[in-house]
Amino acid sequence: MHFVIDRVTFGSVGGVFSGLSRRFTTAAVSLNSDAINLLHHVHLLCSLGHLQEALKLFYSITPPPPLVHSHHTYAALFHACARRSSLPQGQALHRHMFLHNPNPDFDLFLINHIVNMYVKCGSFDYARQLFDEMPERNIVSWTALISGYAQHGGPDGCFKVFREMLVWHRPTEFAFASVISACGGDSDCGRQVHALALKTSFDSCVFVGNALIMMYCRSCGGADEAWTVYESMEFRNLVSWNSMIAGFQVCGYGNRALELFSQMHFSGVRFDRATLVSILSCLCEMGDGLEYCFRLQCLIIKTGFISEIEVATAMVKAYSSLGGEVSDSYAERDPEEAILLFRQFLRECLAPDRHMFSVVLKACAGLATEWHALAVQSHVLKVGFEDDTVLANALIHACARCGSIALSKQAFYTMISRDTVSWNSMLKAYAMHGQDKEAFQLFSQMDAQPDGATFVALLSACSHAGMVEEGTKIFETMSNNHGIVPQLDHYACMADILGRAGRISEAKELIDKMPMEPDSVVWSALLGGCRKHGETKLAKLAAAKLKELDPNNSLGYVLMSNIFSTDGRFNEAGLIRKEMEGKTVRKEPGLSWIEIGNHVHEFASGGQQRPERETLFSELEKLVRRLKDFGYVPQISLALHDIEDEQKEEQLYYHSEKLALVFALMNLGNRCYSGNIIKIMKNIRICVDCHNFMKLVSELVDMEIVVRDSNRFHHFKAKVCSCNDYW
To answer: By three-state DSSP, how is residue 705 classified?
Structure first.
């Protein structure tokens, strides 16, 4: 028999390991201190998980150290290959060992590591051949092979090797745990092993107990048997709790899983991401779990697990199953209340941690001005978190969302350490403020690995600036140049870029070629382009798809009605409105917010529920008269199709953002922010008439007016908008 590694063939393992009694008793060349230091460094790199660096350093040692001096180093390297499942590196290392040590003495310790490497990498043929030719084996040899079969889905092989081992050795707790795990849904096999564990008293071992819990839960839903094992365990670790919680989830007992998780949390047992993923999976199957999901999300954010991909994904899935959204978190749903709670927290002399600061900064992003974010940042500095990258990233986002791109830049450029999220946050800031040149210049300086969000930001910048060719180039090269495969967000951006530019047919062709099903965002992007350029035929298709995917969203109905109105087809527009009423689909009302005197004021179309409504109307009418002398012509022709909740001609002057602007001008001395800037937030897209209105007012009052609508920021100054009228 011959043992083959890549293309190098060696003699049988039994022949290679000659002179079994010698065990490194042959004379060996002594190593100098430099070689010894290098071997120690290789060990250190292996322990730190830096496999490539360790191998590179080991191969660079000249001449290669003989096995008598390096067998522990080889073992460490094989172990590192096993941990990384790096079969090619392990095979190359095995070949290197034989080439430079053609007649080694047998070393059971080293060969066990080689066997373990092959089984952990799933190469059972090599592992079994090497195992069979070993002239001597111990319990470690058998356990390595058993655990390998268990981990790589070989239950028959695992059980067979376990039975063979019983002739020679008494199993260890790890061997028991491996073979029980391999039994999986085979309850008969599992019960046999359980009986043997009871006879040999290994059932009290925590590893065996954990494996039994999962085995019973997977075999015909044996949650009660699993619970019996769990309760009989004298000692439990985190895996024990996780196994039972996951077992309840697998068996469909979500309430019991939640009860056990609550008991675990109140007992002071620290949970991990596996615990949270199981609990979130339970919530997916519970119709009344939305409120529990909100509370669990707060706990996830507080403990920092929100940054774990598996946890975030499970949370999104849970919200989706329960009919909610991740954005329903407390800080985003009611940012003012979140800020008030934070102030109360500080008044009680409690010490906020990094996670609380992160949540509060997220709440600040939902307010009209940046002063709250800066106040929170001052507390961050006081407690010594100024070098925290996550908090700096949150500050960049908050300042950008509050309209201050300058403060976002300041936060970014004063960071000591930046990660990919830092660069993405700044790129998104530039994109939403229409600074496309700055975004591309920043991207050229990016020294972190870009990800999918990086290219969403760049494509958004192209969309806001009408940079069709640049956006197309980015989209087409992101996969080849950066290894980022376009996802739904990227396709939605491209559909928006092409649609805004009037290249509707190209946008439709792109959607048809998508490797995944387009979602509502993609179709709404196409529909927006159709509305802008009066493309009725494709608009009908996009609206139908949008209504199918998101039947309660008014966007498809409103935009289609606007398109018909623009085309003079008012009867068809009326039918769309009646269809909305019949399906009880509600339009989102147009609202605007402005912060004055540390209080956020809300305005609706027509000024409903404002105590100073008549005064507002009077001041607004005065302003309109002045603007008409200045060249303002109301866009009445657009009132039926280019605005959201403010449809009628008599309401054109009383759109929410106009009322907010007048209120700000009436209270200039009370504004909580300094400088010559008025900042307004709006929940829907700003209409053409209000856009023109803001441009003229900015010149009339010689102030900058910043409006954040649902799509982007508009900076109005001296009769010019930062969007260049492309939005």
So the answer is: strand
Bridge pairing between strands 677-682 and 704-708: parallel
Residue type, position 75, single letter = A
- Is 379:347 a contact under the CB 8 Å cutoff? no
Q: Quick one: 528 exposed, middle or buried, by C-beta within 10 A (0-12, 13-18, 19+)?
A: buried
In this predicted structure, what is the pLDDT of residue 642?
44
Kind and range of the H or E run holding 679: strand 677-682
* Token pair listed for 88: 């090619």
DSSP reduced 3-state for 714: strand
Return d(Cα 323, Cα 315) in angstroms, integer: 12
Report the pLDDT value the prediction gives residue 186, as an integer from 0 to 100. Answer: 61
CA 206 centroid distance within chain: 34
Query: How would you label 152-165 residue by residue, b for 16+ Cβ within 10 Å and e otherwise?
Result: bebbebbbebbeeb
State the chain's maximal CA–CA distance in angstroms. Answer: 108
Give the residue from 578, 586, 523 showing the smallest Cα distance to 531: 523
Q: Look up tokens 């908090």; give the residue.
A: 391
Token duo for residue 84: 């990384």
Rg of the chain over all Cα atoms, to the nearest angstrom? 33
Q: Taking phi first (over 0 means left), then psi (-120 to 50 degrees means alpha), and beta for anything else, what does residue 631 get?
A: left
Q: What is the pTM of this model?
A: 0.56
674 backbone dihedrals φ, ψ, rounded to 5°: -90, 175
Say if residues 410 and 381 touch (Cβ distance below 8 Å).
no
Q: Is the dihedral of CA 641, 646, 648, 652 positive or negative?
A: negative
Determine the Cα–Cα distance for residues 311 and 305; give it in Å rounded to an integer: 7
* Percent helix, strand and coil across the chain, each to the nearest 5: 65, 5, 30
Cβ atoms within 10 Å of 481's Cβ, excluding its own: 10
- Closest C-alpha to 139, from 160, 167, 119, 114: 167
Question: Rounded distance, CA 107 to CA 114, Å?
Answer: 11
Positions in the chain short of pLDDT 50: 1-29, 328, 638, 640-649, 672-673
Confidence (pLDDT) at 329: 56
Type of residue found at 673: Y
Read off the amino acid at residue 88. P
- Which residue spans within 482-598 are E strands per DSSP? 591-596
State the pLDDT at residue 354: 77
Which pLDDT value is given to residue 8? 34
Cα 263 from Cα 349, distance rounded (Å):
29
User: Which DSSP symbol is given to 410?
Assistant: H
> Tokens for 71?
């067998």
Strand blocks (E) in 268-351: none
SS3 string of 458-500? Answer: HHHHHHHHCCHHHHHHHHHHHHHHHCCCCCHHHHHHHHHHHHH
Distance CA 510, CA 468 (A): 14
Q: Rounded to whole angstroms, how far apart are CA atoms 680 and 678? A: 7
Closest CA to 525 of 512, 514, 511, 536: 511
Q: Per the structure block, which two tokens stand in for 570?
A: 């008012």
Please give the angle made by the CA atoms of 612, 616 and 620, to the nearest 5 degrees. Answer: 180
Q: What percent of the chain stands above pLDDT 70? A: 89
Locus of tokens 């087409």: 476
What is the CB-side half-sphere exposure of residue 36 using CA atoms within 13 A?
Answer: 5
What does residue 4 show for φ and ψ, rounded to 5 degrees? -110, 130
